From TrEMBL:
Chain ranges of the Alpha-L-rhamnosidase C-terminal domain: 661-729
Entry-linked InterPro entries: 6-hairpin_glycosidase_sf (IPR008928), 6hp_glycosidase-like_sf (IPR012341), Alpha_rhamnosid (IPR016007), Bac_rhamnosid6H (IPR035396), Bac_rhamnosid_C (IPR035398), Ig-like_fold (IPR013783)
Naturally occurring in which organism (per UniProt): Maribacter aquimaris
Statement: the UniProt record of this protein carries the keyword Protein biosynthesis: no
Identification of the protein by name: alpha-L-rhamnosidase
Amino acid sequence: MGRFRLFGANDVNHGSARKGTSILRTVPRLYFLSVTLTFLMLACKGKKVNDIVYGEVPVDLTVEYIRNTNNVLIVDDSPEFGWIVPHSAISQNAYQLLVASSEDQLRNDIGDVWDSGKVSDKQSSNVEYKGTPLIVGRTYYWKVKIWDATDMPSAFSGIQSFKIGKREKGITSANSLQLDPIRPITLKATDKSSYRIDFGKAAFATLQLKYRAIKKDTLVVRVGEQLINGRINRDPQGTIRYQEVRLPVNSRENTYILPILPDKRNTKVGAIALPDSVPVLMPFRYAEIEHAKEPIFENDVVQLAFHGYWNDNESRFQSSDTILDQVWDLCKYSIKATTFAGVYIDGDRERIPYEADAYLNQLSHYSTDREYAMARRTIEYFMEHPTWPTEWQLHVALMFHADYMYTGNAELIERYYEDLKYKTLAGLRRADGLISSDNATPEFMGKLGFKDPKVKLKDIVDWPPAQKDTGWKLATPEGERDGFVFTPINTVVNCMYYRNLEIMAEFAGVLDKADDVKFYTDLAKKVKTSINTVLFDPVRGVYVDGEGTEHASLHSNMMAMAFHIVPETAKGSVAKFIKGRGMACSVYGSQYLLEALYNAGEGQYALDLMTATSNRSWYNMIRIGSTMTLEAWDMKYKPNSDWNHAWGAVPANMVARGLWGINPKVPGYDIATIKPQLGSLKETSIIVPTIKGQIKAVYMLLGDTREFTIEIPGNMKAEFDVGQYPKAKIMLNGIKTENGTLHLRPGKNTILISH
């Protein structure tokens, strides 16, 4: 299978038991034989049968979703533990968790702080601490054992330590910040005293230089993101970064950290400040050094790149389309590189969190690494620091819901439920349920968390707005809004509002608030009906931009499709309209455009957009020289754009969630759904991180047969949708099966779809 092999020896994280679904039949028989033989052997030696251990141990322990707890303070005094159940266990029947005050106690299987005993429960994440009170400043040690699908015990896992810190405002523990020393991929001397350096990728970083000066001197060091004619662009457009720094050197020192000057705009009030222990950072890929009287070698120069805790091996993607592969790599790296601030920010220009940016960042982060703390911290940040766009407020519930689905944890919902009610903007509704931001009073703004009573909500739809509103000379006068016509009752706003009501009905159910379930369920039905009567043109079969206008934009129609508002009878006309508009939205809007296309079963067109090479494409970002996604498709579409904006990294999540259709069906990924829409791809493979472990999948088109190999982690089930192949012959693990939904179990599953 060439480069699409995903399940080789290097990918096995939990031992060698990768037996496929046949293990379901063989495990009980093997265990019976093993038990019998071991009983006889140990009986002869005088051993107790109760001491026998059979199964593989749980691995990848977490406390409060944090994998590496070194240098981390756990601020929840009732933290939640998690672990990965190995494939060979199939599922977990029970667990025993020990927490101790010392490593020695734990090595002797003594949980002097908490011994859960054997708990008959499948839960392998969100296991809440229930021992004696934990003390701030103390370090504790824990481990866990499990009983598998046949109720056979494992040995105890390895030991993980954690330290309790003091809680201030939120309940989310911050993960650690990582520092990667990056060596140059090229260092060229342009003359005896000048050097040009390329680190391969831009990073939020500073520069470390080893230099052996004979006497006091000053080097000129330039760092930047963009090259022009082989040199760093010293006058870049917009917020593309460049800086020249004079670096004093002397004979007493030989290692220097470049004293980068902070930027006034991204260090103002509202910007996220870095810890004092972190030097001033700026995004750069290239460096130039001049006036060097002593030689400089490749090992002398290091890009000190900072980012949040990250494991590159948690996700992977390859396909038969080299452009798609490059786009996915660009987007994954963009998510990693922009995690340096501890919460999701807009980019380097402001370093301010915005709700819409953060939601897109969250989806892509969850799709590329098993990391949840940063999103949860960002959610809590927004409850105190909202921003003004109407739609941005409606993204907060989306963030809560994504976190709930991917983690299964309801703590944030419980803590902020009452405040979240206001974020739905239901208080701005009229009799038919539809809302208008014009109805927001200063009192209502205060309930949203705004401290300044003068701040008002403003519908944004997409960004940037039209040329007449910006004063910029844009490539297209309408900006990124496809000519959207604003009216008080805005279709985009009301589509997002409808989704908020659905989410609140679900959250009310989680918290057993029956009256609220009914209220939000009934209101959601009313709003959906109103959207489909007031804002839908039945003659053209499309959604108009708002009440009182006949104009129909891409945005109104893609939002209705993305949030499952379009009735079956109108899906064809709405999908046709969406496809007819092309990429008439920003990189932010592309999230909802792609979701709309996959919801409509238009996977091929979605693939065409992700692999496009026009100016309005992700490949264009690569072509112009950026190694992180841009704030806009190109500088001509937003002249003040930066080259490090994670909201442009949409394919990082849509390849997993749309192209491969891998999503949690229930909170916490107890059940995954897999609904591939691979279009014209002949081969593709993917690894998707989940809280229960990695889902690994390989696809190959072999003549008229589609072969899928899907590996599901332990303690998870999966539903594979083959409904798009109604007349095909379906084989699951060598057994002919019916069309529709295939039920996959932990381990390797092989699906053959023949025409």
